[in-house]
Batch of 4 targets.
Target 1
Amino acid sequence: MTPRDAFARLRALEGRWHGHSSDGKTIHLSYEVTGKHSAVIERYRHFFKGKLMEDEMVTVYHLDGEELVLTHYCTLGNQPHMRAELEGDDTVAFRYVGASNLSHPDALRMTGLTFRFEDDDHFTQTWYWDGKKCHIRPENRSDDYDDIPDDGLGADVFQLERVPTGVSLEDIHAHGAT
């Protein structure tokens, strides 16, 4: 798969998605194609302790020449930048290349993201992080991070499925998976 093929896979995600992590975290994603099809905006929200997190996180994907890149606008208050490494026909792995607005060189931050595409309506998304929670700025602290160790490597793996048109998120929560 080329970077352009991988970007086309991301554009095909346009719409709403719902899923769960292996530890039971519920996640809602939406994808929007914008800028004359030159960028994909992902909006991320999850439930923590039965409550929808206050703020959403946004990730913007785009081609930079012949490379597929992203910037993740995190509720941690920093903006990691990543570049895709293509792994076969069904996997795109983004690797950390730097970040803006880090409060400290060892601050907690997202360091990787992997997509494994199963079919048009299902994919797995794995987010990786590294750093120390003690370096999160006070204005970015939240109970949403209680499930993250105080420092070191970690990952969240989400199994996602497309939300059919006409199905509300309330319906999903009341009746389970789509």
Target 2
Amino acid sequence: MEEPIRRRQLVSLIAPMYNEEEVIGVFFSTIDSTLKDVDVDYEIICVNDGSTDSTLDILKSYIEQNNRIKIIDLSRNHGKELALTAGLDYASGDAAIPIDCDLQDPPEVIIEMIKKWQEGYQVVLAKRIDRTSDSWLKRWTSSLFYKLIDNISDIHIPANVGDFRLLDRVALEVIKTYRERTRFMKGLFASLGFKETTIEYIRAPRAAGETKWNYWKLYKLALEGIISLTSLPLKIWSYIGAGVAISGFIYGVYLIVKTLVFGVDSPGYASLMVVLLFMSGLILLCLGVIGEYLSRLFVEIKARPLYIVMETVGFDESSNDS
């Protein structure tokens, strides 16, 4: 009796791309040379996130040479979180690995991920132990964010672990059920659970081109992470309000006692203005926090598609829902 032919495992590499024409060739050649001897099949799902340069044309030229490459062309720039979501939705592998095409996350680490996966781990995290390729300000703000989110959220997000990780098909199917429109993928990944392990690596400089992340975008992403993972910024205003009310009561008692003992004092314009400005600022800040949550509810209840696909290239069928 003939033994059944064993199907090789398939790993889906997911690479969101926005104006990455300078690095595409290096990315593909590095991936191919790194994974050529690995005992798995792999596909490279490139998500063109509304690039305005020649990224899409270059991708289409490479797909003629390499049938592992597949392209999802989004109708506009949706942002990395939604571009990554599109790649995960279209991944057909037994495991999926999000990876940046700038090669700051070395493809060599993929080999270690696959080994851990084949040992039975369903989620393999990649932790950056050396980030000297990043500026000191970026490292400091990143460390501050992870400490803050770890203290206020019920979900633990491992420090210095980005989107670069391996997700088994079981974990991938769960993450595909998360359809919120304002997304913080690191938080969604961290909420999965499953049997996981961590490998460490040194973050490299970009292979080519320039980063598309500035500090304003990083700030907005951090804010998205905080608001999507915890309601503490809303709840904390109850405690702040109670504290201010108690302080006001104590101060009122002090004024009554002072008046009874020393008589009526002349009113103070400066102290009155300080109290008014302080309370007005506090109220506006509270309204701003509430507005952040309401704006996200406004986006969610419209229930629009997460992303719009212009075309797909290299897929057998394009029946995926966005």
Target 3
Amino acid sequence: MKRLRLFFVFLLISSATVGQVKPEDTEVWEPEPPVVASAEKGLPPSDAIILFDGSSLDAWQEIGSKNKIQWELYDGTMRVVPNTGSIETRQAFGDIQLHLEWKAPIGTEEYKGQNKSNSGVFLQSRYEVQILDSYQNRTYSNGQAGAVYKQHAPLVNAMKKPGEWQAYDIVFKAPRFDDNGSKVSSGYLTVFHNGILIQNHVEILGTTEYLGQPKNEAHGKAPIRLQDHESPISFRNIWVREL
């Protein structure tokens, strides 16, 4: 009987406590998210930083200098002129959402593997998402289109045929380093290729290396790079949102 009385007392106290809880107790009003107009008809969002819209190459420079790039502005696209060098943005970035479209040229049937329309986009000048004509072109899985080069193979091969435009949408969280230069948290990449998820929040193990293992060197914001790998890759509609 005593236990029963204690049970009812507990129910009364619990009911009284629940009665004091209000929906407003868990509502958060500040800060208010800013209004951003969504992209329509292929246009970037209203808060995007335009890196290339087909009209100018001014957002880009030769790596390590302020010199104008030698890539070609052609019919609203930016095209690699082989052996003129890779390029980078004049602005440095940290965490970002990046959109870019690229096209592998046709008439390259004699090339195979890594030699078939090779390029790459480097986040913070160090972490590469591979650009390659991987349409019916077998190579090592962590080096094909959409790979985080030599670290993560894409979940699927979403390539269109050469001559058709490909789209990458990349969400990048940069690694963090303490004042002593030690990494305290890894970077992560999420990548959509032609609207298909191919990298699902994968951990960046360190710098992109052709030979050897990734390195973890302390750094802050850094430019986005596009690679000249001796292939006339074309680019268009490149924009970025800082996160």
Target 4
Amino acid sequence: MSKRCYYEVLEVSRDAQEGEIKRAYRKKAFEFHPDRNPGDEEAESKFKEAAEAYEVLRDPEKRSRYDRFGHEGMNGGGFGGFQSSEDIFGAFGDIFGDIFGFGSARSANRMQAGSDLRYNLTVSFRDAAKGAEVELDIPVTDTCDACGGSGAAPGSTPETCSRCGGRGSIEQTQGFFRISVPCPTCNGKGRVNTDPCRECRGSGYVRKQKNLNVRIPAGVDNGSRLRLRGEGEAGINGGPHGDLYVVITVEPDKVFRRQGQDLILSTEITFVQAALGHKIEIPTLDEPVEMDIPKGTQSGEVFQLRGLGMPYLGSNHKGDLLVEVKVTTPTGLSSRQEELLREFEALDEEKPIKKVKKFFKKAKDKVMGE
């Protein structure tokens, strides 16, 4: 059977916003929830169909691919739909908490990945250009080493919860239908610790400082994110750890300004150097280099030194160094310097007069020749 259009499934328009899509899914999930429709295979099918549509349309990247290529665009794109209702409860537990006022008991005992963490790291401009290795101390919630995450004291064994009989859930009536909720006695685990671990007080988790060495790649910029897989919070019920995201802020530099991977440098030259040409030394991220100032350079001209900028992430290529020259006007001139400048000015003013005289002489010779 061919799949229905995801927008049609949730009954939203193609330009629907995120909030509208979420509300539409909540409505469908409430209508076709398995606890509200026990034994109804058609309702369960529509429940999965709505969850599949919501997973795609709530994600901007998946939604864009779906809008361009339809269902075919989802194949091989890291999306395979849901195999069971339990998969849906695990993925969208927050949605069901919004609908029913609490999470689904079906996901209480499931393995769940730990929460991701964010660490804001400030690096120097030169470290961003060259790359660096930094040491981080990250406070995390991790599995208790003393009990291995069981919450029971070493040598003791958790007992079956007497309230739920080890199921991890109990049934409650909500209006005209009954649904399962996590057992409040064992918190959905189905077992209770009569002799809790002293290190974690029976929770199975402890707070600790994790020391990490992180390599900052050359070329990072403000907002660059480094993902360290498995360095986040501990998972639930034996689930995998979350990830750690290191978000970079680069300090400004006293010499260079950055424009993407290009660097911009302003330098001053005298008007004599600008007029006659000169070689000047230019600082770079490595050793200084010499740059030719051609005759007649004007203030504000920009010279491009290729390959002397910031490196591109994951590449051997670099941006350029753009050197803006500013011609300075001398002050505090001596009398001799003023005299020479006035002489220069006079010589410069003679040029147009000589051109005019030459023009009139040619015109006169032509008339006399006729």
